[in-house]
Amino acid sequence: MFFLCMALLAAFFPTTLGADICPVCLAPFHGRSEEPVVVTTQCCGQRFDLDCISKCFSEQPIGSRRCATCRQNPMPLVNQNTNETLPDTFFPNQTFYLACLSGDLDQVERSLAEGVNVNAAMTNDFTALMLASTIGDTDLVERLIIAGANVNTVLSSGTNAMLMAAYLGNSDCVKHLINAGADLNVARTSDGATPLSVAAWKGSTECVKALIEAKADLNLPRTDGATPLHVAARRGNHGCLEILINAGADLNAARTSDGSTPLSIATEMGNSECAQALIKAGAK
Predict the structure, then answer these.
(1) CA torsion angle for 43, 47, 52, 56 (degrees, to 10)?
(2) 8 or 155: which carries more pLDDT confidence?
(3) Nearest to 238 by CA among 264, 271, 267
(4) 43, 10 in Cβ contact below 8 A?
(5) Could you point out which of 40, 63, 139, 237 has its C-alpha 20 to 30 Å from the C-alpha of 256?
(6) 48 φ/ψ angles, rounded to the nearest 5 degrees
(7) At what angle do helices 171-179 and 138-146 cross, to 10 degrees?
(8) Which residues contact 199 (CB under 8 A, 6 or more apart)?
(9) Per-residue 3-state assignment (H helix, E strand, C coil) for 126-169
(10) Which of 27, 23, 28, 25 is nearest to 7 (CA)?
């Protein structure tokens, strides 16, 4: 169906598609806030946004890739910016991504040896590093980072590898990502939660400790104004709450939506241990 749609578009808009529009996303190559990497096929000379065509190829086995417009063998592609030739093995397929999701380091090593683009995203925007962070495989995370994986790549939803590792309590992965320069205060677009807020929500004390030691913002709020301390108080995660208090989190920060403080939330939710800890620390 995808190839049929591309063929129809090419038939009806041959000049437009061939000029300045990627046939996959239908967005102009120029005039974007961030200029895309443009590649050209050897079969029909069609130009594509590298990210777009990489996602198309992820569903096709190496050696069986087809151009999205003429359906012929497009390899090798050429980077128009650098004239670099990109072979078939440069574009990851499901074998590589499944290896990252299952922790198959041997297969990942084979793909890396073949020159795979470690930062290429799947159709759902997940990268190899995000998959490895999800399963908590520190050896794989470290190997991908060494291979050049971008630790701060963000999905369209706003999440990234650090947020995934923090949400799942994969503290060792969090530490590896921190050491590699991951942004500690990146916020998800849905609710504005930072890695520290996510870790406090899930009750991962080790992740909270690691993020605080790395100087994550203790009081950066979500879109509703709730800080990590609010989150820990609501969830009754006493261990995380104590760590945040001892690190100097604002005890009396008020949420912008309803003015609740960590103490009022802990009381409302019946989380007496958290409430007592806040009162002992001087919360009003």
Answers:
(1) -10
(2) 155
(3) 271
(4) no
(5) 237
(6) -135, 155
(7) 20
(8) 166, 167, 169, 174, 207, 208, 211, 228, 240
(9) CCHHHHHHHHCCHHHHHHHHHCCCCCCCECCCCCEHHHHHHHCC
(10) 23
Question: Residue 13 has what DSSP assignment?
Answer: -
Q: Residue 39: beta bridge partners?
A: 48, 79
pLDDT in tens, 129-180: 999 999 999 999 999 999 999 999 998 888 899 999 999 999 999 999 999 9
- Are the C-beta atoms of 3 and 66 separated by less than 8 Å? yes
The pair of three-digit structure tokens given for residue 260, joined into one six-digit string = 């609740």
Interval 219-231: pLDDT, tens = 999 999 999 999 9
Instruction: Give the CA radius of gyration of the chain.
Output: 23
For the record, the structure tokens of 230 come out as 């609010």
Question: Which residue in this structure is represented by tokens 């991504």?
Answer: 97
Paired tokens of 37: 């990497």
> Which residues in 8-27 are b (16+ Cβ under 10 Å) and which e?
ebbeeeeeebeeebbbbeee
d(CA 232, CA 247): 14
